[in-house]
Amino acid sequence: MKEPVISIRHVNFRYPEQTQYALKDISLDVAKGEWLAIVGHNGSGKSTLAKMLNGLHYPEEGQVTICGFSLKEEFVWEVRKRLGMVFQNPDNQFVGTTVQDDVAFGLENNGVPHEVMTARVKNSLQRVGMLDFLNQEPHHLSGGQKQRVAIAGVIALQPDIILLDEATSMLDPRGREEVLSTVRQLKEEQDLTVISITHDLEEASRADRIIVLNEGTVYREGTPEEIFQLNEELIGLGLDVPFPVKLSRVLRLEDFKIVSNHLTEEELVRELWTSNFKK
Amino acid sequence: MMEKMIFGRYLPLQSAVHQLDPRAKLLFIFGFVIVVFLANNALSYAVLAAFTFVLIYLSKINIRFLFAGLKPVIWLIAFTFLLHIFLTKEGDLLVEVGFLKVYEGGVRQGAFISLRFLLLIFVTSLLTLTTSPISITDGLESLLNPFKKLKLPVHELALMMSISLRFIPTLMDETDKIMKAQMARGADFSSGPIKDRIKAVVPLLIPLFVSAFKRAEELAVAMEARGYRGGEGRTKYRLLHWKWKDTVALSLLFVLAAVLWRLRS
Ligand SMILES: Nc1ncnc2c1ncn2[C@@H]1O[C@H](COP(=O)(O)OP(=O)(O)O)[C@@H](O)[C@H]1O
Ligand SMILES: [Mg+2]
Questions:
Q1: Going by C-beta distance under 8 Å and a sequence separation of 6 or more, which residues neighbour residue A185?
Q2: Residue from B10, B226, B234, B236 whose CB has the most chain A CBs within 10 Å, to mutate
Q3: Distance from C-alpha of A71 to C-alpha of A83, rounded to nearest angstrom
Q4: H or E stretch covering B126
Q5: Can you tell me the distance from the alpha carbon of A203 to that of A194, in angstroms, rounded to the nearest whole number?
Q6: What are the φ and ψ backbone dihedral angles of A254, each rounded to 5 degrees?
Q7: In this structure, are A201 and A135 located in the same domain?
Q8: How many domains does chain B have?
Q9: How far, in Å, CA of B12 to CA of A134, rounded?
């Protein structure tokens, strides 16, 4: 594994006045430049973990290190510059009255000089394909467009890590694809580390690595292929297996010779239409 | 609708008035409110009215929009007018109907006061019609900056105003949605006795408040995650530029004051 940009060691956390721990003895590393998906049922602690990475919560016990900064109150603003977050609800994270004001918000907070700011706002908006909407007000944008503006606001600060906390879950399929392909493209352009928290195993199947959270603990960790081998186990955890994986499995049970659990429809289709030639 | 109520309506045109710095316009209005009181006879009021109409002409705003701004206060103007007509007992007696006596001085006073009202409303409407709400906010923040020393939370007030502006359409949409959802469940907002109608608003307000508080909480988290930590050490994306035109606009006000001073009796 490459050098970790995030390392979490034996972290415990509970919300004030709660007896239940929301995170229990969590340890994990995130490598520079990887795309990590975190999946888990509702209430499994995904958002709590995400907020912990940004200093919105501090661990009760254990150690969180981000880009070399130990997560303490004195470094929290440094950490927030390096790890940008995009949240679930597109409306409730749009602060500015127009697109450009919103992208500038994070820059203003960090005291970036005005000339640098205007250049960065333009550049970030261009990279997410929203430059034409500079003066648009949020209620005239679609959900996917608002999330792309939120992403522009994050990359304007030139972070090392971008964390999406169910950022696509309130979008329609088109908006979802819009946002994901934007993130994918940004990741290719620079050495961005992406952590995407998601319900959507289809989305997770395109990650380099998946971590499954269950009841505040790390239940499993592995490549998408490894994780999808779990099948019923995943369903037991309240997760839905992607359709191509399900279909490959059922076909295999029916004595079709399917080599592996295919993660995408294309792979499955390719195997199916060529399978007769192999006989 | 709500936006209209709070800030009038902004008409983004290209005119000399639109291009002025919001601070210049705010100071101008502040001065105008004082200067208006210098007029006290027919001639000075005529000059004042002429001045106002030149401003309106320069702003390229259709006068229709200015009259629309009058609607909420038209009764107030009418009331003051009548009050002056019936209560001022100066000059010649004009009409006498029963115990009501109308004097020449009353009519004059009533007309002057109403005109003063009218001109003030025209000029303030001109501000909101030619300046976007966010510019007004920026202008106010900048003008109030000296009061930071007196512990006035200027930055916070400006932020509150801009967040409110940003969320008004969102909450309007939401109200609409909840209203439709409740109507689908049989709620009736538009008929029945007033008591029932007030009761019908409760199932509208409660979900709206719950959702607004949830939004506020999420927004606060998102702002913090984006590095917001109060006004200290913050830079501004929107800068205001004071140009010579702005100085000229303010000087016009002094010229007006001087002219009125000469003409008043
Ligand atoms: N502000 C809070 N106060 C108390 N408990 C909370 C709070 N937020 C979340 N929790 C609890 O912590 C657990 C994890 O929640 P969360 O991290 O939001 O889950 P996820 O994002 O995976 O759906 C849940 O049991 C939830 O009820
Ligand atoms: Mg969550």
A1: A127
A2: B226
A3: 12
A4: helix B104-130
A5: 13
A6: -85, 15
A7: yes
A8: 1
A9: 16
pLDDT score recorded for residue B3: 44
Angle at A177 between CA A137 and CA A168, to 5 degrees: 65
CB–CB of A177/A58 below 8 Å? no
Average pLDDT, chain B: 89
Sign of the four-CA dihedral A140, A146, A150, A156: negative
pLDDT of residue A2: 65
d(C-alpha B265, C-alpha B257), whole Å: 14
Specify the CATH number for the domain of residue A183. 3.40.50.300
Query: A22: Cβ below 6 Å to ligand 1?
Result: yes
Measure the N-to-C terminal CA separation of chain A; round to a whole number of Å.
40
What are the tokens at B77?
A: 């103007």
SS3 A258: coil
Q: Which residues of A touch B (CB under 8 A)?
A: 51, 54, 56, 77, 80-81, 84-85, 87, 89, 91-98, 100-101, 104-114, 117-118, 121, 137-139, 153-154, 157
Please give the tally of structural domains in chain A: 2
List for chain A the helix, strand, coil content (%; round to 5).
Answer: 45, 20, 35
Q: For residue range B101-128, what is the model confidence (pLDDT) as tens digits?
A: 888 888 888 999 999 999 999 999 999 8
Question: How far is A189 from chain B, CA to nearest CA, in Å?
Answer: 22
Tell if the CB–CB gap between B170 and A80 is shorter than 8 Å.
Answer: no
Range of the domain at B20: 2-131+239-263
ipTM passes above 0.90? no
β-bridge partners, A180: none
Which pTM does this prediction carry?
Answer: 0.86
Rounded CA separation A60/A13 (Å): 5
Is A95–B163 a contact, with Cβ atoms under 8 angstroms apart?
yes
Q: Is A18 in the pocket of ligand 1 (CB under 6 A)?
A: yes
- Higher per-residue pLDDT: B88 or B43: B43
- Answer yes or no: are the C-beta atoms of A82 and A113 closer than 8 Å: no
Does any domain span residue B86? yes
**Amino acid at residue number B107:** V
A24's tokens: 């229990």
